Amino acid sequence: MSLIITKECINCGACQLECPNHAIYEGGKKWSMSEGTSLNETNYYNPKELDHYFIVDEKCTECIGFYNVPQCATVCPVNCCILNEKNIETKDTLIKKKKKLHN
Predict the structure, then answer these.
(1) Helix %, strand %, coil % for the chain, to 5?
(2) What is the pLDDT of residues 5-40, one digit of tens each?
(3) On the CB side of 32, how many CA atoms lie within 13 Å of its CA?
(4) Cα distances (Å, whole numbers) of residue 96 to 48, 54, 64, 76, 91
(5) Residue-wise burial string across 50-78, b where 16 or more C-beta atoms lie within 10 A, e elsewhere
(6) Phi, psi of 34 (to 5 degrees)
(7) Count of helices and strands (H, E) across the chain
(8) The whole model's pTM is what?
């Protein structure tokens, strides 16, 4: 499953710097599938959150293929990077997503 950032986020940005998929964006910022990946998509999408950082689930792989644990959760000083129970994905699905993002 991908991760989410809860409303307890203090907007420190530590998580954004650690994400190998560039799946974390500042609240209110548009996002793109191509940023930080090998994809060539040029579309930008509206922010998923306005007031705090957010994780784009289409790009989040729980750091599979890069690290053993999600780096955003490791560095978050207020523990607001948590698993998204509404978006359950298997390890195989996450590996395929990683390969698609970084072919």
Answers:
(1) 20, 10, 70
(2) 999 999 999 999 999 999 999 999 999 999 999 999
(3) 11
(4) 23, 22, 10, 26, 9
(5) eebbbbbbebbbbbbeeeeebbbbeebee
(6) -80, -25
(7) 3, 4
(8) 0.94
